[in-house]
Amino acid sequence: MIQVHADDPITVRDLTMAYGSFVLQRDLNFAVKQGDIFVVMGGSGCGKSTLMRHVLGLNEPAQGEVFYRGESFTRAEPERREELLQRIGVLYQSGALWSSLTLAENVSLPLEEFTDLTAAQMRDVAALKLALVGLAGFEDYYPSQISGGMQKRAGLARAMALDPEVLCIDEPSAGLDPISSRLLDELIVGLRDSLGTTFVIVTHELQSIFDVGSNSVFLDAETRTMIAMGPPKELRDHSDNPTVRRFLTRGEAASV
Questions:
Q1: Which of 27, 29, 44, 157 is 20 to 30 Å from the Cα of 149, by its Cα?
Q2: Where are the domains of the chain?
């Protein structure tokens, strides 16, 4: 059982994820440290995105708990959960922007719901967040007027609206060309370095895993539990688990 520390933004302890009697993953134990770019990886169907949903409280554990800064999110009352969730920003695969709203209006949505800022103040915050992701000057554009990569960055700006200490991103490279994907990876590292933001990223893209990941957990669909944890490059080069090595080398190390 993992120890829970108040210094760690997220701790997962003895977590079992299940749909009815079907267990997807069991006995998950790991901590996301301050300043991590923490990668959740594994093959298709292993439960990566489902784990993120558990961390965000969208799914309830069959067993175990999720902690934010040492406080149980799983056992918290609904009002306290709402307060704790404001520490975490989320970027979904699609970007999930409202097509009828401008980029500035999209970024302002969390500010309207959770702050008492004036319209002018929200506009200023939205412009700042868009500038942080390289979209200065695009405040009045609609999602349909910009590229897929820019939509992802706008979604990231909205996820940052409330200055969360953790950003959760589900498949950041989904639907992007290699250049846009590389630019988004560089943006993630830059935000971590400049703002101290902690990231939790679900991805199967090897290039992104190695370019951004400082720590990781590997979920295995066959054994239905985590079978490795550590920096992705170290797991690639030194893991003694053939499943992990095969995933991180795309089969090149299958015979090693």
A1: 44
A2: 1-87+166-173+198-250, 91-163
For 1-5, 47-51, 107-111, which range has the lowest pLDDT when averaged over its residues? 1-5
Architecture in CATH of 1-87+166-173+198-250: 3-Layer(aba) Sandwich (3.40)
Distances in whole angstroms, Cα of residue 40 to Cα of each of 55, 66, 97, 194, 254: 12, 15, 24, 23, 21
Residues 120-155 pLDDT 10s: 999 999 999 999 999 999 999 999 999 988 998 999
Tokens of 178: 């290699």
Task: Tell me the HSE value of 183 on the side-chain side, using a 13 A CA sphere.
Answer: 15
Model's pTM, two decimal places? Answer: 0.90
pLDDT digits (tens, 9 = 90+) for 63-85: 999 999 999 999 999 999 999 99
